[in-house]
Amino acid sequence: MVHFAFLDWFWVIAFIILMTVCGILFYKLGKRSMADFFLAGRGLPWWLPATSVYATHTATDTPIWVSGVVYQYGLRGLWYTFFSAWCAISAFASTRIFRRSLAYTQAEWQTLRFSGLGAELLRGWIAGWQVFMNMFVLGWVGMAMGKLCNYLFGWPQWVALVLFSTICAVYVLAAGYWGVVMSDFQQGVIAFLVIVIVSFWGISVAGGPHGIVSKLGAMGQSWRLNPFAFSGLTGGDFPLVWFLTMLVIAVIGGFGMGTSIDWYPEAQRIQSAKTVRDASYSIWSGTALIVIRNSIWAVAILGFFVLYPNIQETAQYEMAWYRIGFEYLPVGMVGLFFAAIVAIHLSTISAHLNLGASYATRDLYHHYFKPKATEKELVWVGRVSTLILLIGSFIYGSMMKEITQWLIFALWIMAAGIWLPSILQVVWWRFNSWGYLSSWIANLGLSWLVVWVLPEFRLIPDLPDYLQFWIMMVLGALIYLPITFLTKPEDMDRLVKYYVMSRPLGWWKPVRLEAERRGLVVPEAGAAKGGN
Amino acid sequence: QAVGMSIAYLFSFLGLLLAYYSYKKKRGEKKE
């Protein structure tokens, strides 16, 4: 339990009012059209979506899991957080392609890249999945806040879940994405400043950088300072092959769309930037802030390890960074710290409320139910969808107290199973909608086999996660590649239109030659690679 | 160790069914 003085509560309440009013101020802009309610009219300079990328991916559970991996593995634990580096590649590859396509959502992009029934099925498939995913993320992040407030104030877990998500919904309902991105800017600034202050405070308490290094040496724990302290090629708790797998997933994944579950909120920020260049800068710099944030946290958590080296329980050492703030900051500063945690929380909740509503409105309601709906009607459908997502997140949150970790892993393996086809759809003209849809469906069956059925019946041993990734990638390819070649390529008219609009990278030569023949692009040497 | 994935797929299948019937309906309207 933490004791809050008057000054502490003053900071918290003042910041909540500031954040909520800032969002509501953009009510008039948000209600103009669906493009305003979900993409801020595609008119934002790069630094606004950049802070939104950073703020959205800093949630209340983020310092918990970063504390967990760094306390357990030392600086090499930072590699767990390095998967976000896919954005550094994507900023100059798939980000540019997606922004040029002008798709509102990833689901809509499927109907621009593919054609016919297959494209429509993919759009419905991804829209349905994203409505679920955003509700799930809202429940999971909401429960993380519930657990934190239970730890701090003894509140029942549902109180913080309902209280803070409802406060957040006020400005998301009023101003849509305009409210989200403008609040994200101030929330991102507040969060970054407080993360720096609290982390440096913790480092100072532990004796400063030199003190931490010498104390780790005296404890015989110097290996914690080496980010490359692998436990062997394939054995131990930190094998080299795991590291290489993670690098491949992150670096090559930047050429695809949907290679990580983070792609979907990123796609909304990409499309809200005013130019292709702004979109690139926003994704690159937002991710750079995330990587810098992780590094600052890591040093503070090493400081915490020096202070409390013998914590065995994961749930205890995962609170390392929060404990630095709540146990060492003076009165008044503790309230500022909690206000920053609220800022971190609201930025994530607001992003997923609006993102889930965009799939429900643009892809399900507008595309399938009422294509002739007016802009005013669509904004109201966006608001109703936001409200449904909010209520759904309360139900999810209360259901998943115990199963969260397993579900998160389930969703990781789900993204991992479609990692390669998510790249192929961007870089290879011949990959068609039936290939991509079959890769999703095959992924479910293969996951059942590789993750549970075969190990359960002792037909294969329990496999580490990196091996599951590679096995599922190969087995999946044995299904979706034959299906791709046994079905027709996409309609050439659609491919040419997509090529001219999006200028994709990779193997697009037949489409490029056709676009040149039609006089739609200027012939130039070596722009697209070979045929198949 | 539940690894949840099927629940996520259930939502995807619902979206796919919606897309399928919507596509069939549009095709039917075009033929008329």
Topology:
The complex is a heterodimer of chains A (532) and B (32).
Chain A: H1 6-24, H2 27-30, H3 34-39, H4 47-56, H5 62-73, H6 86-90, H7 94-101, H8 106-113, H9 116-153, H10 157-205, H11 208-218, H12 240-253, H13 263-272, H14 276-307, H15 314-317, H16 320-328, H17 333-369, H18 375-399, H19 404-417, H20 419-427, H21 433-456, H22 465-486, H23 492-502, H24 509-517
Helix pairs in contact in A: 1-10, 1-17, 4-10, 4-13, 4-14, 5-14, 7-14, 8-9, 9-10, 9-17, 9-18, 9-21, 10-14, 10-16, 10-17, 10-18, 11-14, 12-22, 13-14, 17-18, 21-22, 23-24
Chain B: H1 5-31
> Share of helix among residues of chain A?
over 70%
Average pLDDT number of chain B? 79
- Low-pLDDT windows of residues of chain B: none
Q: Approximately how much beta-strand content do the residues of chain A carry?
A: under 5%
What is the C-level CATH assignment of chain A?
A: Mainly Alpha
Structural domain count of chain B: 1
Describe this structure in words.
The complex is a heterodimer of chains A (about 525) and B (about 30). With about 525 residues, chain A is mainly alpha-helical. Chain A has helices spanning about 5-25, 25-30, 35-40, 45-55, 60-75, 85-90, 95-100, 105-115, 115-155, 155-205, 210-220, 240-255, 265-270, 275-305, 315, 320-330, 335-370, 375-400, 405-415, 420-425, 435-455, 465-485, 490-500, 510-515. In chain A, helix 9 packs across helix 10 (about 155-205) and helix 9 (about 115-155) crosses helix 18. Chain A is globular. With about 30 residues, chain B is mostly helical. Chain B has one domain (about 1-30). Helix content of chain B is about 85%, strand content about 0%. Chain B starts with a helix and ends with a helix. The model of chain B has no long low-confidence stretch (mean pLDDT about 80). The interface of A and B includes residues 126, 407 and 451 of A.
